[in-house]
Amino acid sequence: MLELSNAISGDIDISYSNLFSFANYLLTAIGSWFLFKKCGVKGIWAIIPVAREYHVSLCADKEKEGRVYTIVSLLFYLLYVITGVFVLFNPMWALFMVIPLVGVYVTLIIYMLKIYLGLIKVFDRKKKWLILFMFFEGITLFWWGVSSRFVPGKKVEQISKNGAKELGENLTAAAEGLTINIADRTVIDFFKKKTLLKDIHLIIPRGHMVLLLGGSGAGKTTFLNAVTGYEKAKASIKLDNNDVYSDYDKMKYDIGFVPQQDLMRGNDTVEMTLTDAALMRLSADASVMERENRIANMLDQFGLTAVRNSLVEKLSGGQRKRLSIAIEFISDPSLFILDEPDSGLDGVVARSLFEKLREIADDGKIVVVITHTPDRVIDLFDDVIVLAKDATRTGRLAWYGPVDEAYEFFGKDSMEEILLSINQKDEGGEGRADEFVEKYADRIKEKVG
Prior knowledge:
Elements: H1 2-39, H2 51-59, H3 63-89, H4 91-122, H5 129-135, H6 137-146, E1 178-189, E2 192-204, E3 209-214, H7 220-228, E4 234-239, E5 242-243, H8 248-251, E6 255-258, H9 270-281, H10 288-301, H11 317-329, E7 335-339, H12 347-362, E8 366-370, E9 383-389, E10 395-402, H13 403-410, H14 415-422, H15 433-448
Parallel strand pairs: 3-8, 3-9, 6-7, 7-8
Antiparallel strand pairs: 1-2, 1-4, 4-5, 9-10
Helix pairs in contact: 1-2, 1-6, 2-3, 2-4, 3-4, 4-5, 5-6, 9-10, 9-11
């Protein structure tokens, strides 16, 4: 009887516990739903744990803290499950999980405190409300949500869904050159779809050296990744008559990309480095003589013959950068892209490097370059691509065309001034991105029409 009584008592305790948890969840969800409506957040997130807390952080103007809380929450649940498994199969192992589990839980508490303190500030209430949030979260959120007494001082920033007007149509692919038609490039970023790039259409002829200009967050790297097929977008990218996406296995060797940071082994010689590159990037059908000739050509073309037996770690900054370029150029690509090749180089060395790139373009290649100091070498470029963040914080095309015409289009005398004109005001710019995106779209529509 005693055992039966205890079992019944246990069942009742479990039932009360489940009932309390459900009631707390219901109050929290309903309260958050109405709270989100007040703050300008979609109410549907109120019913999804973890996602709910992240969106509370948006109401609290603590988005960064909300991201950390979300990640730590997922880590906590993972550790909790692992600990449970250990308890079932080897209780002694579970003891080793106690410390990290407690540490993660304490971190959760700290960030939850930060979020609720932010919420209290946005609603202009006294900090003593924090006690109620921590110990009676469901009831407090319900109260704040349904009561008209609690009104936020500001709403979550609502960004226009339309942004600047679009061209909205693909350009006809050129028989020779690079034709880029990007409809959009999107990602899921913390429970919401984010558009990184949209409505970018341009054609770069062979033999052109093009500057890629844009402020921080304008989508320069995303744009290059989409063009090379490294991160595919909703797009059509054609190099001459070849489709970069559908023929990627073949086309990837016709595209060279030099990143800002080189990935070369310091204890290899220059010649060994190029030999490895030749083995990886040249056709498997290439003979030993063809590979040797190509390596010799690279050493000569990039001024590395005198240091062919030197270790990479002993090279100067300019020599290392020329070697990085030679590695990618060894396959003789038609499209050559470089991300800040002059980073860390003085003016004279950087100038020499860009003159070498000019020679590559003059040989019928397409060269696209990102540089943070464009004005010192702008005379070597044919065209400039200007990417800008529109009202939706999406990377858009604000200009593509000859350098001289770009100055007239933006009414500026330098690339630095053009960049300042399209940067957001909170970034020290003039905040005219949408104006130029629309102006350029109208210009292209006239030409296409």
